[in-house]
Amino acid sequence: xxxxxxxxxxxxxxxxxxxxxxxxxIKTCSAFGAYAMTAITAVTAQNTLGVxxxxxxxxxxxxxxxxxxxxxxGADVVKIxxxxxxxxxxxxxxxxxxxxxxxxxxxxxxxxxxxxxxEDDAVTALRDTLLPLADLVTPxxxxxxxxxxxxxxxxxxxxxxxxxxxExxVYAALMKGGHLDGKAVVDVLVSEEGANIMSGPRxxxxxxxxxxxxxxxxxxxxxxxxxxxxxxxxxxxEFVFEAIRTAPGFxxxxxxxxxxxxxxxxxxxxxxxxxxxxxxxxxxLTS
Length: 287
Description:
The protein has one domain: 3-Layer(aba) Sandwich (UDP-N-acetylmuramoyl-L-alanine:D-glutamate ligase). It is built from nine helices and nine strands. The protein has helices at residues 21-32, 59-72, 86-96, 120-130, 141-148, 155-167, 211-224, 229-245, 265-270; strands at 7-15, 35-47, 50-56, 77-80, 102-105, 136-137, 172-175, 184-191, 194-201.
């Protein structure tokens, strides 16, 4: 990527509680110093307990938002999250086809609470129309199983599913292993260069609302600022780990609380202080 200016266009749904979706994406990009623009695909009424209502945007309005951003400001990276309907998937695919930007697809199908966020007839469109246009796809285990038809029970299965996604045309797949059992969380970045297995400690926390949105947006922000894919992924994983560890504790004890998106990443790295650097304990987190 050349002449990057940190411009990220986010195409996703809105989360009224601020923990996931567009709100989490903007906060994450801002934490890294990237510039976030948005095309909102849906308005949701939700909180830490779940999704109470969803109103999908007309596909033509989603297209108009995308066109307005790209025709004026432009984008170095496009991050795609909740799309919801086949009509929206079709207009997004048309917009990113041959676009001179790195495209990250977070194939959101189910919320952390378990609520469905993708209509049944949209799954095929996501897999067959949009997926081949993505440079990076970031599925969790259920999403990877949905896209590939493979059963995933361990890290080897996760890697095989990543290879299957590459066969569908994506350049790289960040296979998230948080749903797998084990004391460690193992993610696998599968690309044409091979598989990079990254392991880190598992935090036992109810504050996991929006982790997928946050991770994908952190990768997007770092790539928009000029980092290569591997480094962007490692920085994004560190951010999510620390955002969970320092979560503000909001929401019902029975729900999935939001992360701490207020981490000042740039300040911590430019002015390292062993006593208060939030990443001092994370060196060596990835391997």
